[in-house]
Write a structure and sequence with these properties.
Blueprint: H1 4-17, E1 24-26, H2 33-39, E2 44-50, E3 53-58, E4 62-67, E5 73-78, E6 124-128, E7 133-136, E8 149-154, E9 158-163, E10 167-171, H3 173-182, H4 193-204, H5 210-213, H6 225-235, H7 248-268, H8 279-287, E11 311-315, E12 318-322
Antiparallel strand pairs: 1-8, 2-3, 3-4, 4-10, 5-6, 5-9, 6-7, 8-9, 11-12
Helix pairs in contact: 1-7, 4-7, 6-7
Length: 328
C-alpha cells in the first residue's frame, strides 16, 4: 500500500499538471460515470494529500476523494512535467530531456518507489503507486484506456487514469472536512506544535501497542508498514509497548522523526531511513532497498547496529520487522 510520501508526490503531480485547467473527466470502466459527469469541464482548484488519501478540488465546491488502498494506482501519460520542489535522482532513459530537467542518476533495480516517475520525458507514460515507474512512449495522445480505468482526467497535454482504488467519490466541502477530521495529523501539511500535541493526545489515549498505534490513521496520518518498522527501530522502541505508557518526550521524538522521514520521502522519492549516507553509500541506498533500511524485510539477517538477528512476526494482520537487541 502506498505510504504517505507517495500520495503527497502524486498530489504534487496533479498540482503541476492539472490545477488551473478544466479537464474532461470520464469513467471508461463505467463505475464512476455519475461522479465523472459532475466534475467534467470544471476547473481543478487544488490538489492535496492527507496521509494516504488525496483530495482534488473542483470549482463549484466539488471534491474528488481517492484512497488507493492496496491495489490502486495512477497512470499519467502525455507531456508530464515535474514539481520543482521534487529532486530527480534517476531515470531509465539516461541523460537527456527529463520533463524540465536534464538530470540523471541511479535506477532502483527493484523498481521500488522509483523516482523515475517524477523525472519522466516530455512524452511519457508514468505509473504512480506503491511502486513508481516510467516508460517513454511515442504513441498517440491520449492513449486508449488500458484495463479497468475507474476515472480518467484529460486536459490538453496530460492524461491521468485511476485503477483499483479503495475509494473514489465526489464529496461536498462539509463531507471532505468530516473525512479529514477523522484522520490524525500529517506533518507534511502542518508541522506545528498544535498538530504535534494532537498526535500525542490521541496516542496517549491508546492502550494498544505503539506498533499498532503508529499504523492507526486516526492517530497519525500516512505511516505504513515500512515507516512503522523503521521509526520504531530508530527510536529504540519495543513495538509491543502500550502507547499510553510512553513518555511525552518519546512521542514528541516520534512525531519529529516522522516529519523528517516524510520530507525525505516526498522530496527524494525513496523511503530512506538511514541518516548520514553520502557518496557511494547514498547511491547504493537509492538503488538497493536493503541499503536504505535498518530492519524492513531484513528478517533473519544481523542487525546493522548490534548484530542480533532481525525478527519478523505477524502483528495486527501485517508483517512487523524489528530488532530484539536494539528495541528493548
Amino acid at each position: 500500500m502506498p505510504e504517505g510520501h507517495s500520495v503527497h508526490r502524486i498530489a504534487r503531480q496533479f498540482g503541476v499538471n492539472f490545477v488551473g485547467t478544466a479537464p474532461e473527466v470520464t469513467s471508461p470502466q463505467g463505475r464512476f460515470a455519475q461522479g465523472a459527469a459532475i466534475l467534467s469541464g470544471r476547473e481543478m482548484m487544488d490538489a492535496r494529500a492527507v496521509g494516504k488519501q488525496m483530495f482534488l478540488e473542483f470549482e463549484g465546491d466539488h471534491w474528488l476523494r481517492v484512497h488507493l488502498g492496496i491495489y490502486g494506482a495512477w497512470d499519467f501519460a502525455g507531456e508530464v512535467v515535474i514539481d520543482p520542489s521534487i529532486q530527480i535522482h534517476n531515470t531509465k532513459f539516461g541523460r537527456g530531456r527529463l520533463g524540465q530537467t536534464g538530470m540523471a542518476g541511479v535506477v532502483d533495480k527493484d523498481g521500488e518507489d522509483s523516482v523515475a516517475s517524477i523525472g519522466a520525458p516530455r512524452r511519457a507514460r508514468v505509473h504512480m503507486a506503491e511502486v513508481d515507474r516510467a516508460d517513454a512512449t511515442n504513441g498517440e495522445f491520449p492513449p486508449d484506456p488500458v484495463g479497468q480505468v475507474r476515472v480518467r482526467l484529460l486536459n490538453e497535454t496530460v492524461c491521468a487514469d485511476l485503477r483499483g482504488p479503495t475509494a473514489c467519490e465526489v464529496l461536498t466541502p462539509a463531507e471532505v472536512d468530516a473525512v479529514i477530521q477523522k484522520l490524525g495529523p500529517d506533518p507534511a501539511n502542518a508541522n506545528t506544535e498544535a498538530e504535534k500535541q494532537r498526535f500525542i493526545e490521541r496516542a496517549h489515549k491508546k492502550r494498544t501497542p505503539v506498533g499498532l498505534v503508529l499504523m492507526d490513521q486516526s492517530v497519525i496520518a500516512g505511516i505504513g508498514n515500512v515507516y512503522r518498522a523503521e521509526m520504531l527501530f530508530r527510536a529504540g522502541l519495543n513495538p509491543h509497548t502500550p502507547a499510553n505508557t510512553l513518555d511525552t518526550a518519546v512521542l514528541e521524538e516520534l512525531w519529529d522523526d516522522w516529519a523528517h522521514l516524510l520530507e525525505i520521502g516526498i522530496t527524494v522519492g525513496q523511503m530512506i531511513t538511514i541518516d548520514g549516507l553520502q557518496g557511494e553509500a547514498y547511491r547504493r541506498a537509492l538503488a538497493e532497498r536493503d541499503e536504505r533500511h535498518w530492519v524492513y524485510k531484513l528478517e533473519g539477517t544481523p542487525c546493522k547496529r548490534c548484530g542480533t538477528n532481525i525478527v519478523l512476526e505477524e502483528f495486527g494482520a501485517r508483517k512487523l520487522y524489528w530488532c530484539p537487541g536494539c528495541q528493548t
